[in-house]
Design goal:
Blueprint: H1 3-6, E1 10-19, H2 24-33, E2 39-47, E3 50-58, H3 65-78, E4 82-89, E5 99-106, H4 111-123, E6 127-135, E7 140-147, H5 151-165, E8 168-173, E9 183-186, H6 197-205, H7 208-219, H8 225-234, H9 243-250, H10 257-266, E10 270-278, H11 279-289, E11 293-302, E12 305-311, H12 317-331, E13 338-342, H13 348-353, E14 356-360, H14 364-369, E15 372-374, H15 382-385, H16 390-398
Parallel strand pairs: 9-10, 9-13, 10-11, 13-14, 14-15
Antiparallel strand pairs: 1-3, 1-4, 2-3, 5-7, 5-8, 6-7, 11-12
Length: 399
């Protein structure tokens, strides 16, 4: 029966709730089948062993509604379930225009913060059509399906609210594109890995404190990145090239990095990294992790020693955005279906160029400028922003 045909047809909403057990859904519809009704809609949820099952069905033939009600109640009571049956007309009301997915991450997710997010959605003119949990660890992640308001103003309103109440919120447009192939591009230092690679090199040169100070200023946007890069690399002059293998061995992946990449690859996504660091490390990461793309600066090595210079095109703030566009073109993925992840000021252009820019444990100015922020130490939580559930993540790990 088409939507136009059910718009004025008398219908019954049959609601069953109680302790879950196998066979409830089949039992309800076996009971309803005796009255030759058509199914218009079904919703079912099980929470901590309690089921709520709703079936919207057409009204039975004249004179049989009372018998249907009595039969359903009798069946429910035999299973120690409760039943409620409401008369009405037609199907659900159409969802409003402007549809979005709102993902909320909490560690923990409190009732107070959930109330604040729900209230802010309502204040923007949005309606919450459905809520379900994506994950219960390492963070609690829930997704709201929202209609009635445009994505951009909803994202702006919720970003402000999220910063005030201490949760992470991502807002993306609903639609088929969410299921399409995507390209994910990440920064490396303090994003894919826990370290700043140049500081690892500097430790072997005995100038790590000086380099760390300049790095921090550059990441906060207080210094020009290219100038700071040349100044820091100059301090590495004379290091034996064998230091490259030592630094590679010292690199520590961010918790959840392997899970993120493995799951994305299982989903058919392409994954790349761009770095203000060095190809001597990113090329190794590309091989180890099975990445599709990698780009970074290259340390010049002559006669087995670092010269204190870099070669080739500098990967700076603007360069990262250019590389995102280049990777997207090579992957055949529209920019609207790209996701960029980073933490520093030199990631901002890339984050704002991508369809979704995620600030990962980022500096304040980056959090404020990105589409969304994740402030928990688990990189795989980014998957929840894409609508991937924890169960799907675990299933990908078993393949």
């Amino acid at each position: 029966m088409s939507a136009s045909q059910t718009s004025e047809v008398p219908t019954l909403l049959v609601k069953i709730f109680g302790k879950d057990r196998p066979g409830i859904t089949a039992g309800l519809f076996d009971t309803l089948a005796a009255f030759s009704v058509d199914v218009v809609d079904i919703e079912q949820v099980v929470t901590r062993g309690r089921i709520v099952l709703c079936a919207l069905v057409t009204q039975p033939s004249a004179g049989l509604e009372g018998e249907l009600r009595a039969t359903v109640h009798s069946w429910a009571e035999s299973l120690r379930l409760s039943a409620e049956i409401l008369s009405g007309t037609g199907d659900n009301q159409p969802r409003g225009s402007g549809r979005s997915h709102v993902t909320v991450l909490g560690h923990p997710l409190t009732a107070e913060s959930t109330a604040a997010i729900a209230a802010k959605i309502t204040s923007t003119g949005g309606n919450i059509d459905r809520i379900f949990r994506l994950a219960k660890y390492p963070v609690t992640a829930v997704e709201f399906a929202v209609s009635g308001t445009d994505t951009a103003p909803l994202r702006t309103a919720l970003a402000t609210e999220a910063a005030q109440i201490g949760v992470d919120v991502a807002v993306v447009s609903a639609g088929l594109h969410r299921r399409a192939q995507r390209l994910i591009v990440m920064d490396v230092d303090s994003t894919l890995i826990q370290d700043e690679v140049i500081e690892l090199f500097a430790a072997h040169a005995g100038c790590d404190e000086k380099v760390a100070k300049v790095t921090a200023q550059a990441m906060r946007g207080e210094l020009d990145f290219e100038q700071s890069l040349h100044a820091r690399v100059a301090l590495l002059a004379g290091l034996d090239a064998s230091v490259v293998d030592k630094v590679r061995a010292e690199v520590r992946l961010t918790p959840g990095a392997r899970t993120l990449i493995r799951t994305l690859k299982q989903l058919g996504y392409q994954v790349g990294v761009v770095s203000g660091g060095f190809t001597q490390v990113t090329d190794d990461l590309k091989e180890r992790l099975g990445l599709d793309f990698a780009a970074a600066n290259t340390l010049e090595i002559v006669d087995g020693r670092l010269t204190g210079r870099v070669t080739g095109e500098i990967v700076d703030r603007a360069g990262k955005a250019r590389l995102l566009r280049r990777f997207a073109a090579e992957a055949g993925v529209p920019l609207a279906q790209t996701v960029a992840i980073g933490d520093g000021a030199n990631d901002l252009d890339m984050l704002n160029t991508a369809g979704l820019g995620v600030a990962f444990n980022a500096k304040p100015m980056v959090r404020e400028a990105a589409h969304t922020a994740v402030n928990v130490p688990f990189l795989d939580t980014v998957l929840y922003l894409l609508g991937v559930t924890r169960e799907e993540v675990e299933a990908a790990g078993l393949d």
